[in-house]
Design goal:
3 strands, 2 domains, three-stranded antiparallel β-sheet
Length: 168
């Protein structure tokens, strides 16, 4: 009877620790994009953000599954806040280009004056990370700078066209 209980306890412990084998906890202060950038360099492709009711944010990542990243983020958040946390965003990235595009989008979307400009930033970041010609990269960077400072879609598109004219 005692041996069976020890076996069950050992089995339960191993199964409970299995999801943690493919996850990592980082100490320090991170933003969503810096966390993804750092963890993706180590091969993680699943990312999650958890937030507590009192505003504490924690991140989790995994190279195994989205569930493992979610569990890591909520567990770390709950341990730090003492509250039940919920997943507030998550993403699965498959390629280096996806990660670069995400970092670009986060960078240029930070101080947007108009939420409707987000789709233009995403479009230009996708272009920026997929093109190889230096001239096209300059057009994309110039356009992203104009869009991020624009107050509306018309001004953003005009700024992008000015960039194309400047470098063509």
């Amino acid at each position: 009877m005692l041996i069976r209980n020890k076996k069950n306890l050992l089995l339960y412990t191993l199964i409970s620790l299995l999801p943690l084998a493919c996850t990592t906890v980082l100490d320090g202060t991170y933003s969503w994009d810096t966390f993804i950038q750092e963890r993706s360099e180590d091969g993680d492709t699943f990312f999650a953000e958890a937030t507590s009711p009192n505003g504490i944010i924690s991140y989790g990542s995994s190279n195994d599954s989205q569930g493992a990243a979610n569990n890591m983020a909520t567990r770390h958040c709950s341990e730090n806040s003492g509250k039940i946390c919920r997943i507030t965003r998550f993403i699965t990235l498959s390629r280096k280009q996806d990660i670069e595009s995400l970092v670009c989008t986060e960078k240029y979307s930070r101080d947007l004056k108009n939420e409707n400009l987000g789709f233009l930033i995403t479009q230009w970041c996708n272009k920026l990370t997929s093109i190889s010609l230096q001239k096209d990269k300059k057009i994309a960077e110039c356009s992203l700078n104009h869009i991020s400072r624009s107050k509306n879609v018309t001004n953003a598109i005009s700024g992008s066209k000015l960039c194309e004219a400047k470098f063509n």
